[in-house]
Amino acid sequence: MPGEQDEVNEVLGSIKDLQLVYMATIDGKIPRVRPLTMVRFGSEHYILTGANDAKMRQLSENDNVEVCMDVEDGKGTGYIRIEGKMEIVKDRKLKGDVAMSTSYFSEYWSTPEDPAYALLHFKMKNLEFLGPGEIYSRKSKL
User: At 2, is the pLDDT very low, low, confident or very high (cuts 50, 70, 90)?
Assistant: First the structure.
């Protein structure tokens, strides 16, 4: 019988390499939610974004975030919610490697050294999962 860790691995494994997510940040006392593409690189998840976007200022003041994504199976919908922290990546090699492996990078930035490009590393802490057609969600620490 599969255990909780098996289910967590299955849920995390269902996240696509380029996954539409809705990320919430805090702007003062007000939550701000926006759609983004989360990118899997190796076993980690990243957000490529504009260095001067409002979310960068918000994250510099409070790096706590939550992302949410839909889960569908043809019979219904559910969701994956993940809480954690966004770390601004400073490592030039990692920024370049993620940029060059991401299909849409050149649509927004000229090179990985472009000062308008920022890379965020999603440090996941807690997971909540509601499978399609289910009534109750399950929570796990990561």
Answer: low
